[in-house]
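Researcher: Next entry in the queue.
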Amino acid sequence: MDNLEEKLQNLEVDTKKLDSSSDKKDHRMYNQMQDLINKYVELSKQDPESEPSWQCLSKSGETKIYRKEEEKDGVLLDYLVATTSVQGVTAAEMAEVFHNGKLKLEWDHTIEADKKLETLDDLCSVYHQILKRVWPTAQRDIVYASHKQKLEKPGEHPSWIVCNVSCDHPSVPEGTSGYTRATIEVVLFCQTVCDKTDPTRKDVSCRIVYSASVNPGGWAPSAAVRAVSQREYPKFLKKISAFAVDHVKKNAIEF
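Model: Structure for this entry, 255 residues:
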């Protein structure tokens, strides 16, 4: 089996050259987002099939889902990484479906409400998201920054990455919203696969590396969190892929 590094076709990322879509790099989340991009590009280069810290949770067609545990500063970090390929969609289009708040409400039915709190630049904003309650657990909310960025490599169509990471915001301090505050670190990496100069939808596909670290907040047994993750991640990838394909099928191809 090809490892993730091969799936990314040896993408080399220089964070000094990444952001060609926005020239504002001085907002408070920018450096954290660049560190996160570097972190997950490095994570994507690991081979889940040979690394003992990785465990395969499920395989279904093109989709493979792995869990990786590591300890950092005495805290157990649980990474979930999925790889898949979606026909008929480019990296730019898939990233937009994942990043766009209005589109997200159309395909992610776990969300009860999603409000933009602040615009940091044209591709990074802070949101307050309220999740639908799953009985018998407490209802959760998340305050997070969502950052979309182009990754360019000479001679290839640009790849795109979206980072969603929890942050604080004075308008919704933790403990004042009436919900249990969850925290997230979620990354969707998208790479276009296309070797035609004048492609149709049949000629393009999008390789995805999706990684998420979620702390649901409150008291939640790790085994229960793991069981939910194993069940929900395949559903998530299937849902966003189907929506993206349908959403762009009549549009001009965007890279």
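Model: Residues 222-248 form the longest helix (27 residues).
Researcher: Noted, moving on.
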